Amino acid sequence: MKVGHIAVYTENMEASVRFYQLLGGREGMRSTLDLGGGKSKDLLHMVFDGETTVELVCPSDKGMLPRVTGTCEHFCFNVEDVDAAVRELRAAGVTMNILLLGPQSANIAVDLATLGVTQAVGSIEYARELNRFLAGTGLRLNAHMKLETGMGRTGFDVHDDSHLDEMLEALSLPHLNFTGVFTHFAVSDENGDPYTQLQFSRFLHAIDRMEQASGHHFAIRHCANSGAVINYPQMHLDMVRPGLLLYGVFPAAETGGLPAMSLYSRVSEVTHHPAGDTISYGRTFTCPHDMRLAVLPVGYADGLLRSLSGKGDVLLHGKRAPQVGRICMDMCMVDVTDIPEVQPGDVATIFGADLSVAEQAEKAGTIPYELLCAMSQRVQRVYID
Q1: Share of the chain above pLDDT 90, in %
Q2: Contact 182/223 with Cβ under 8 angstroms?
Q3: pLDDT at residue 132 above 80?
Q4: Fewer CB within a 10 Å sphere, N or C end of the chain?
Q5: pLDDT at 51 over 60
Q6: Where are the beta strands (DSSP E) in 3-69?
Q7: Interstrand relation of 291-296 and 269-273 (parallel, antiparallel or unpaired)
Q8: Distance between CA 204 and CA 202 in Å, rounded?
Q9: Are 2 and 380 in contact (CB under 8 A)?
Q10: Is 377 a residue whose pLDDT tops 90?
Q11: Is 315 helix (H, G, I), strand (E, B) or coil?
Q12: pLDDT score at 50
């Protein structure tokens, strides 16, 4: 498990810089994120030990600051075992809130409550099950209620008020403490789409109905995924949930981005093939002329999608080298006939600043999310500031 960065709100950028300098941090990159409508966020990275980064976020409009106590916006981790990861964090002294957006088995409810995590709850059945496993323990599990406003996936249905009684029942369960409420947008990457506004209106209406009927107050309301972070600042509410945006990739290709993740490999071997030779499984590629190929030790077991076979390029010495033949489990071959300087050990860029993950995803017939999520655990991670 590795921390990429921590985003922290501040009202006074320079005062926060001085504070983190006293803790051993040094100033890194500064930038300003234009949110439109005359609003913006100043961003500054404070780097510790060359690895961990605290991102200070200072909004131009102080009304954009969260209304809840505490100013840490989010942590981001990649983990294989949620329960083990949470235990590791708690053992390391991390006491802040950890929100599990995906449902966990109700039979570990006691563990979740003991570890002090917050669990997303999207149905009365799941709420009852969690409450049942906690009965008699004296424990309460912090929870965020998931509302289904139009994604068609999970959550309490709030298209109308027909499920209000179920939501009120969930709020009344003695072993669940609903500290937050959230939803997920379907098309927020499309700026100005009326469906996002419809979902947002349903979300706010449902919260208002629950709070009026129960007297319960949700401390944290959140609905903004990456698209809404960029396109709908009025929907940021108390917390935002950037996903793809954390990798510096914008949900809509036309909006640009600053890639924060690159994938590299090294040439393991350079081979020579006469015209007529066939390459890789299935013999799907036949050399049209004498060719020089570079073998890269990266394949679909690493996350390089097999659907990119014969479609993608890599960069070697700043030049494009087309991938040829089928991508194998552990390796692939690229054409370096016109790049004579390529030798074993040379670094190949599969995607990054000069060869976008969006381009590779389009060639594979998918979206950047899939390529970024596909990177397996055996791919070495190197973090730089």
Answers
A1: 59
A2: yes
A3: yes
A4: N
A5: no
A6: 6-9, 26-36, 39-48, 52-59
A7: antiparallel
A8: 6
A9: no
A10: no
A11: strand
A12: 58
CATH topology of domain 263-374: Lyase, Ornithine Decarboxylase; Chain A, domain 1 (2.40.37)
Closest CA to 281 of 236, 231, 333: 333
No. of helices (H) and no. of strands (E), the chain: 9, 21
Superfamily of domain 79-249: Alanine racemase (3.20.20.10)
Query: Contact 208/217 with Cβ under 8 angstroms?
Result: no
The mean pLDDT value for 140-145 works out to 97
Render pLDDT for 318-352 as a digit per residue (tens, 0 to 9). 999 999 999 999 999 999 999 999 999 999 999 98
- Torsion sign across C-alpha atoms 72, 77, 82, 85: negative
pLDDT tens, position by position, 8-36: 888 888 888 888 887 777 887 787 876 66
- Residue 214 CB neighbour total at 10 angstroms: 16
Two tokens, residue 254 = 């036309």
Domain boundaries of the chain, sorted by first residue: 79-249, 263-374
